[in-house]
Specification:
The chain is mainly alpha-helical and 86 residues long. The chain has four helices and two strands. The chain has helices at residues 11-23, 43-57, 63-68, 72-81; strands spanning 2-4, 7-9. The chain has a two-stranded antiparallel sheet with strand order 1-2. The N and C termini lie close together (10 Å).
């Protein structure tokens, strides 16, 4: 659990919130979401998401993993490599 702005959130809740906030989606739209499957998840949107992930979880994502971060589900696998329990 991480406390954000006085609210206790799980890593998964934070992960979902980053997608919802960055791409203006509802949580139920996230399963199956893939890079470039929506207009907002273009290269700029991707880099913004990566920056927000790094900040939220206090990690530094290596370039090969930034490139491999190709879907909502794949992102959880990648974050686990960095010790983020999702």
């Amino acid at each position: 659990m991480i406390k954000k702005r006085g609210i206790l959130m799980t890593n998964k809740e934070i992960y979902i919130k980053l997608f919802v906030t960055n791409f203006k989606l509802k949580p139920e739209e996230l399963p199956g979401l893939k890079y470039r499957s929506i207009k907002a998840w273009d290269s700029l949107g991707h880099m913004t998401l990566m920056e927000d992930m790094e900040e939220a979880f206090d990690i530094s994502i290596d370039t090969p993993d930034v490139l491999a971060f190709s879907s909502f589900e794949k992102g959880m696998d990648i974050l686990r490599k960095y010790g983020v329990d999702i």
